[in-house]
Amino acid sequence: MGGLVHPLTGAVSDFDPLIARVGDARFVLIGEASHGTHEFYRIRAEITKRLITEKGFGAVAVEADWPDAYRVNRYVRGTSDDADAVEALAGFLRFPQWMWRNADVLDFIGWLRAHNDSLARPAPRVGFYGMDLYSLHASMEAVLLYLDSVDASGARRARNRYACFDQFGDDPQRYGHAAAGGYARSCEAEVVAQLVDLRRSAAVYAQRDHGIAPDALFYAEQNARLVANAEEYYRAMFGSRASSWNLRDRHMAETLEALDRHLSRDERRPKIVVWAHNSHLGDARATEMSRSGELNVGQLMRERHGRNAVLVGFSTYGGTVTAASEWGAAAERKVVRPALPGSYESLFHEMGGPNFMLDLAGGDDATLQRPKLQRAIGVIYRPETERQSHYYHATLHRQFDALLHYDMTRAVEPLERTAAWVRGETPETFPSAL
User: Fold this and answer.
1) What pTM was estimated for this model as a whole?
2) Cis amide prior to 414 (ω within 30 degrees)
């Protein structure tokens, strides 16, 4: 593959070509081929540190719920009561907790707090934000908490509107099933009315919230928008996959745009690093996702920002991964099967690197211009149905601007090691798999 290949040896200079490739771009989207691989988390954090210290990036936006990540944001910016990074991550209680409550994220959060503490005022602190929309009830509570502090009558109106969900308890999928199936009235009108009400009153609230956190209004408005989008998402879950997927990724892209506007108050041209799965950050138009009508964050950011958005992916051939066997189950340390023949991962393994970066925008290798299988492991890993569950076709050179391949990788370490995870011991043949 000629000059496309940059070896990754563990040296400090390994990522110099990638940092140079970023240039003056304002958005760097760094993916992962699984939600449970140590190397993806650690290397992504190392690249992000360099983007912050060398390129002036001012925010990290991640595939996590807005309220949980905002608690971390307050900690790293020195405005929370949390004693340490472990406590700051305590909000991540929803499955899969290990995605953010793991040793690598803990290390990065500790570094980010130390970095912010070292900055002289009034330099803006680097923030940490969530993009996802699963926090329906937590976000409603956050809206109510804000309104209680600035507008008692507005808080009463919001409670009356959000009471539409009360009959379904804390399970938003129960609401979505009932509303989509016509068994219950939709709460769409109420959540939209609440978002409009809060936005209409924003100027008044801005005058009243002195003594509250400076960006409390922004936080509340994003929670109200999340509630509106989540209500639609949970109804769409019981329709087509493309509809619910697109709602979620549009929400994440909208969150990035809102964050960009908000940070523009303090920075002339804010720069944001994005962490999410490859399937969200690689351009969907270069994958078979597009044939079923699915789009994603990477596609939307490229369409809106062109070369100001740099897309970076990860891949691995084999090793171990932290994942569950089904939704809501305990985290296990699972053996990742060697990549299927004919896949990009198998091709990279045969190159014998073992670890390297491909600058996909810097060459026209025909091998990368033809669709091939690509592996994607989420929070669930089903090796017994590997091809059907974890592979799709992609054209790599159009999907990402750069890709980092780590041939043999190991499972990310959860902060809470359950018996199920500990039992998942690495086989004696690792890493040869022979």
Assistant:
1) 0.94
2) no
Are the beta carbons of 414 and 95 closer than 8 angstroms? no
Structural domain harbouring 68: 2-132+271-423
My answer on whether 41 and 178 are in the same domain is no
DSSP 415: S
The pLDDT profile of the chain, 434 residues, written as one tens digit per residue, is 544 899 999 998 999 999 999 999 999 999 999 999 999 999 999 999 999 999 999 999 999 999 999 999 999 999 999 999 999 999 999 899 999 999 999 999 999 999 999 999 888 999 999 999 999 999 999 999 999 999 999 999 999 999 999 999 999 999 999 999 999 999 999 999 999 999 999 888 887 766 566 689 999 999 999 999 999 999 999 887 789 999 999 999 999 999 999 999 766 789 999 999 999 999 999 999 999 999 999 999 999 999 999 999 999 999 999 999 999 999 999 999 999 999 999 999 998 879 999 999 765 666 777 899 999 999 999 999 999 999 999 999 999 999 999 999 999 999 998 888 988 755 443 433 33
Query: Based on the domain organization, do 62 and 18 belong to the same domain?
Result: yes
Nearest 5 degrees, angle CA 417-CA 418-CA 422? 75
**Does 113 reside within a domain?**
yes
Do 296 and 345 share a domain, yes or no?
yes
Asked whether residue 166 falls in the same domain as residue 56, the answer is no
- Report if residue 148 sits inside a domain: yes
What length does the chain have?
434
* 198 and 281 fall within a common domain: no
Domain match, 127 and 146 both: no
| Same domain flag for 118 and 163 | no
Q: What burial class does residue 114 get, using C-beta atoms within 10 Å of its C-beta: 0-12 exposed, 13-18 middle, 19+ buried?
A: exposed
